[in-house]
Amino acid sequence: MNYDGAARHSNSSRRDAAGRERNRGFGEKRQYSAAAPSQRKRSSDPARLTAFQVLRAVSGEDAYANLVLPRKIRENHLNKLDAGFATELTYGALREQGLYDAVLQTCVDRPLASLDAPVLDALRLGAHQLLSMRVPAHAALDEMVSLVRSQVGTGPSGLVNAVLRKVSLKSREEWVEQLTADISDDSQVMAITHSHPEWIVRAFRQSLVAHGRDVAELEELLEADNDAPVVNLVALPGIGDLGEVYELGGRKGKFVPGSAYYEAGDVGRINAVRAGTVRVQDAGSQAVARALAEVELPSGSSDSEWLDLCAGPGGKASLLAALAAQRDAFLTANEPQSHRADLVEDALNAVPQDAWQVTEMDGRDYGQGQTERLFDRIMVDAPCSGLGALRRRPEARWRKTLADVAELTTLQSGLLDSALKAVRVGGVVAYVTCSPHPAETVAIVEDAIKRNPQLRVLDTAAALNSVILTAPVAPGHQYSSAAASASEWSGNSIQLWPHANKTDAMFMTLLTIDEPTTSED
């Protein structure tokens, strides 16, 4: 035995009686594996594998989890219990990515960006199990190490094991306390605590104030944004039926008529959903479509031509088309992108085909150069930041930037101006976004009022309340027409909220064009 070996052996803290060296520092408490090497799993748990595959598609291919997850659940033949676990694990890891990355960074001795992407995805899944799910730490560690060993490699599995052990030493609350201890800015603290980008926290604060709500609701809003949303279904009026949904465990919707909540697993197994007569659609989206369809037009005016200016992927268009068919009206569903136009056509196929058509124009071209106004009701569901649907699209919060909002406002203004040129005098335009950000909502409408002297804002809250089942929704922002004094309010908007209405944060303002006034000499 050489000198170094003799010295190590003479210190009994380094070798056991059999002469095996312990790979740890002096006096360090040993972290035992939950399983002996010969007993460690070499295969992946199907539910965790499914979640891992979805995260890989989201981070590696810019995919959307809500589109990938159902397919992976079916491909991996998950039962109802495993499908529920995979869903919670997937969406939870995506929603809480900001917090988990902050925790992981304290447990890794290099920037997270330098880690291989599959390893980082696995660490996020492990962190969610350890900090936010009722999964025993030993089970989370063993399963994630096994998954990484089988899907990435033996070397990375050791890193994952070491990092997740460090994560497991503190609870979620203890990690949040550590990460926010030296931060005095409330928005920064909330961004970490509730795992939202800081700019979105500030935007939500501004949005609450702009829409007449108490800024003290901010934390409740952020918490609601992290809740797992219930699947909302709608039966197309006169076409669909919810009987099968109820038989499979669905519940009657409480916000709008003809709707249901479904928590019994994959909606793809519902025959009516596969046939397109029952559709997945947030109750807020259902409500704004119904409000546009039901708002009263001037007596004697036509009500036969409807337009969905930005129809893709077809959710609101299918509901509007079904309502139009019941009233002998005709819907034009416009979507400029061909692949999305195909989705619109698929969504409309359950509606009698003599009640609709799909066009592929740039929405800003409607009404341009025309001498006759064509439409009685127009839906402008403008492309937006999607800040109102972050609970359903959790990966979106990490993809969006404040610059995206600024770029979209020009498009939103152009689309609304086009609709106002295409609507008949006395007709109605619904300006809708799935965002509460004032730059995408009230500011767009206020600018349109300044440019259009004949534009009048309707009582949007009254229109919405006429089609919902629950307690009345309070009016949001109030507008004055360009010709009115500041005290002569002519209409309002509505802003729905996840924490207050249990819907996506849908915004809507209903507008009409009055006859031009003539002045006498």
TrEMBL record:
Coiled coil: none annotated. Gene3D superfamilies: NusB-like, Vaccinia Virus protein VP39. Residues 207-514 form the SAM-dependent MTase RsmB/NOP-type domain. Its EC number is 2.1.1.176. Residues 1-46 are annotated as: Disordered. GO terms for molecular function: RNA binding; RNA methyltransferase activity. The active site is at residue 434. This is 16S rRNA (Cytosine967-C5)-methyltransferase. It comes from Neomicrococcus aestuarii.
